[in-house]
Input
Amino acid sequence: INEFLADNKSDVKNEFHLNEDWIELCNNTSKTLDLAGFYLSDDDYEASKFSFPVKTIIQPHAFLIVWADNINNPAQQQIHANFKLNNNSGGISLSNGGYGVVDNVYYIAQEEDVSYGRCEDGTGPFRTFKYPTYAMQNCVVGIDEERLNISLKIFPNPASRVCAVETGNESSKKLRVLNLFGEIVLETNIASGTSLDVSQWTD
Output
């Protein structure tokens, strides 16, 4: 459990264009994680409240969003838990039927559009985020980034066909692009002046 928003008034919307609460899971390992047999719950007395759909996986170093909106609609494309978060206080648990609780967090009253998440991702203590980081790293500035001193410009933004990347130097750098669900849509080496074809990327 990496981050959650329990009082969503104007943050991201689900595929039904509703501002609903969400829970973010993080895989900070180098292996793909299969969530078959895992459960999410907001109730200590009903740990298996929501079971993950078959073939729900989290890619290495990626994120998975579960909408806590109690929506059950045949047209849904995203993952929706069968409960909503209480913005006054509550808890969230991730459990495995065979090994009990894998991770959990308890929280007090939550502020509107302020999320609660870990820093560092996946392992650090929880803190509030005035600007929620839906399906993204919570703490984006680390030691490696400071040492590399990368200047990155992407333009035009937004782009529907092709965009250019300027890195500020001529050396090749590794670029990884993730969508809002934490899925990797591009992973490649780039140099300053590289052009990216984004015409096939979905929203």
Notes: The helical segments are 143-148.
